[in-house]
Design goal:
- There is one protein chain.
- The protein is mainly alpha-helical.
- It has one domain.
- It is about 60% helix and about 0% strand.
- It is built from seven helices and two strands, in the order H-H-H-H-H-E-E-H-H.
- It has a two-stranded antiparallel sheet.
- The protein is globular.
- GO terms for molecular function: hydrolase activity.
- Keywords: Hydrolase, Membrane, Transmembrane, Transmembrane helix.
- It holds the Pfam family YdjM.
Length: about 180
């Protein structure tokens, strides 16, 4: 598991990705309202798998289910992403659950590298790369690189990504 701060930072990145994908689908609405809603929902979804486990209806605010079980199940988040994306042409407000699900999926991707892992399909998947809270900078950098690439693809037709690739190719050590 990444730290709470890392999940918040990657949630913002997921919001940018969700807004870009909503714009790419053509569901912008007046004043880009659906892009903004998807962005806000993506931020909220970035921490959702953790706060959905808390029993907010009780005074003690304990977990009502074990950590990293049902709320971290990858199939449910992927189904919500796909279902809401396919529903957007008929129901533009599906951009809100889409953004929320993109944030939740980003949360699971950030939790997968640690030893405890995430239940993606039937069993837990762990890359076992580092312990919880370590390498947050790497996780946040990866999430924001994906967000910048998605935004560049949708709003700038990948001109900046292509320029970065050309720049990196010019730095080849054997050239």
């Amino acid at each position: 598991m990444a730290s709470r701060q890392a999940h918040v930072a990657t949630g913002w990145a997921a919001g940018v990705i969700a807004a870009a994908l909503v714009a790419h689908a053509g569901m912008v609405g007046p004043f880009h309202v659906w892009c903004v809603c998807a962005f806000i929902a993506g931020i909220s979804g970035g921490t959702a798998p953790d706060w959905l486990e808390v029993a907010w209806w009780s005074r003690r605010r304990r977990l009502w289910i074990k950590h990293r079980t049902l709320t971290h199940w990858g199939v449910a988040w992927i189904a919500l992403v796909m279902g809401s994306y396919w529903a957007m042409p008929c129901y533009p407000y599906a951009a809100v659950p889409f953004g929320f699900a993109v944030g939740g999926l980003m949360h699971l991707v950030c939790d997968t590298p640690n030893p405890y892992g995430v239940p993606w399909l039937l069993h837990r998947v762990s890359l076992n790369w580092w312990k919880s809270g370590r390498c947050d900078l790497f996780v946040v950098t990866f999430a924001w690189a994906a967000a910048v690439a998605a935004a560049d693809m949708v709003w700038f037709r990948s001109v900046h990504v292509r320029a970065a690739i050309v720049l990196m190719q010019s730095w080849h050590p054997f050239a």
